[in-house]
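User: Quick sanity check before I run a bigger batch. Here is a single chain. Can you write out its predicted 3D structure?
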Amino acid sequence: MAKTKAAGSTTLGRDSLPKYLGVKLYDGQKAKAGMVIIRQRGTKFFPGKNVKRGADDTLYALKEGVVKFSTKRKKSFNNSQRIVKMVSVA
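Assistant: Done. Predicted structure follows.
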């Protein structure tokens, strides 16, 4: 007796669901408190004023206002600098 079926059975074909990452609210759009602004893996965007970072690096609004994107020089502990993208709600 065969251990596995002859045809039609495969061990492949299992695929994970999409994670729907990316920017959800763009520059100039209105945000309410608690609304997700960006879903991301890692810190591609950094939280600015009235924005908080969740456990999975999601950025969400703390207060009602208008979303604003900007760039800023960020200094590291080893004195190296890099330009980061900041998201704030004003």
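The chain is about 0% helix and 40% strand.

User: Great, the batch can go ahead then.
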